[in-house]
Each structure stands twice: as C-alpha cells, then as structure tokens.
Amino acid sequence: MFKEVSLGQYYQADSVIHRLDPRVKLVGTLLYMISLFVFNNIFCYAVAALLLASVMMLCKVPVGYMFKGLRAVLFIMLFTVVFNVFFTTGDILFEFGIIHISKEGIKMAVLMLVRLTLLIVSASIMTLTTTPNRLTDGLEKLFRPLKLFKAPVHEVALMMSIALRFIPILSEETDKIVKAQTARGAKFDSKKLIERVKSLIPLIVPLFVSAFRRASDLALAMEARGYHGGEGRTKLYPLKYEGRDFVSYIILALYVAVIVFLGIMSARIVAFLTPENSYLTLFF
Least CB-packed of 26, 28, 34, 178 within 10 Å? Predict the structure, then answer.
C-alpha cells in the first residue's frame, strides 16, 4: 500500500500540461482547491470534475496512475463518509437504535467524498506534470514579493519542493521496511487495534532514522556542490510566459466565474424552495 502514492512523483510525457509554466499550475491548483471548499454543492463539483477530467486527458498520464494515490487515503475517506452519515444531525431518513441517518448526513458524506477525490487527484496531477526543479522555480517566482519583507523566499521554495520529492522516496522506504520486518516475524495485519499500534514501533523507528540519514546526505551533497542559498544564483532555464500560459489563465478565470455563478444561483434556489419540495435541497 505504501507504493500507492502518486503525490510528489513526476511522470515523463510530452503534453501541453507538462509544458505549461509551473506558476500557472501552482495558481490553478490553489484556486481549484479553494473553489472546492468555498462552494459546497453538487453542481459546482460537477463543473470542477469536468475541468479536472479535461486536464487528465490533456496531460497524457495514465488514469490509473493518477488515481492510485487514493488507495493510500482510502481508510480516511471511508471514515469521513461513515462519520458524516451517522453523526450529522438533520431530517431523519432512517433510524435503528442509536443509528440515525439523515438527509444532511448523506449530502455531507457524498460531497466530502467527491471533494477529497478531486483534491487528491488535482494535487497529484500538478506534481506528476512538474519536475521538482521547475516546481521550485515557480514557487520562488510566486513568493518573490515577500522578499520586500526580508523573507527567505528561495529557501522556503526549496524546502517545499524537497518535502514533496521526499514523499515517494519515504513511501518506497516504508514498503521496504515493512517487507523486512515481516520477514523477521512482525505482523502488521492483526485485527486487534492494540497489537496493530504496537507493530508500528519497528516501522516508525527505522523510518525516522532513514529520513534523517537521507536529509543529512542531501545537506552534505548540497554543501559539497557549493550551494549557499539563492543570492546571486542564475537559472539555466528561466521561466517565461508563453501563449498557452495566458490561455490557461483565461480558462481558469472562466472556471472561477462559472463556479461563482453556480454558487450564487444554488443559494437563491435553496432560499425559494418550499417545505413541500425541500428534498430538492439534497442537490444544492
């Protein structure tokens, strides 16, 4: 299961999404995620899913490769759905003992499941189509105004890029440790919760040791190559906006306008619904 992490990995392909400026992808991903939290109705999510599906077709990355990151958080997603279904108060649809299923609970569970899926896939697409170096350059460019406040923009961008790059590395390392500990008799699939928690000790300790060792090796390698921060450094491939980047910004602006319009219209529709057809609010 630890190999099923697509966040932080890069998939080599020749597509228009790969060739986009990293600033476009960073801004687009951020606005996309914000839209999923601000507007909470099925129509807005349908437009968001349509945009994401279009990007998935353009980026030429296998669909299974993009969705495999969901397996690592499948338990969290199922727990979120169950929690919302059984613990959200509202109009009761089904009741059995202490179990209460409400209309609002079903709505929240469905919307939360869709939201988490779109969030994880959109973040995976950004890292799958952007190399760590380009991602660092894009973050540094976007954070450049913070230099007026003496903020270490280059160092912060570098740390964020390295953190993303370490995700798949540590996932592979975790998988190796699990196999090694299993060969030595460790059991990670026990049905008892206490035993499963105890079995994580021989996994967490070597994982932390490996992570610190890798971080130390990386620091020594950067120092040996003369790295001393971002001051005075030049770029081999400086970022420059092209026509496709401006077109992407226009599409992003249209997406935001449509989402805002649907959000306003859905709120007005809910306001005018009568008690007789209040079940329609399940879709808004």
Answer: 34
User: Whose CA is closest to 125, among 25, 255, 242, 256?
Assistant: 25
Q: What average pLDDT score do residues 130-145 get?
A: 83
Determine the Cα–Cα distance for residues 95 and 76; give it in Å rounded to an integer.
25
Beta bridge partners of 99: 96
| pLDDT tens by residue, 10-38 | 888 888 999 999 999 999 999 999 998 88
Q: Helix crossing, 153-183 with 201-224: angle to 10°?
A: 140
Q: Cα(2)–Cα(15) distance, rounded to whole angstroms? A: 28
Write a three-state SS string for 216-245: HHHHHHHHHCCCCCCCCCCCCCCCCCCHHH
DSSP per-residue letters across 194-213: HHHHHHTHHHHHHHHHHHHH
Residues in the chain, total: 284
* Separation of first and last alpha carbons in the chain: 36
Question: How many CB atoms are closer than 10 A to CB 137?
Answer: 23
Domain regions of the chain by residue span: 1-130+241-284, 160-239
Q: Smallest Cα–Cα separation from 74: which of 116, 32, 25?
A: 116
Integer Cα distance of 157 and 141 in angstroms = 9
Model's pTM, two decimal places? 0.74
Let me know the angle formed at the C-alpha of 88 by 47 and 40, rounded to the nearest 5 degrees.
20
- Maximum pairwise Cα distance, the chain: 73
pLDDT digits (tens, 9 = 90+) for 38-63: 887 788 888 999 999 999 999 888 88
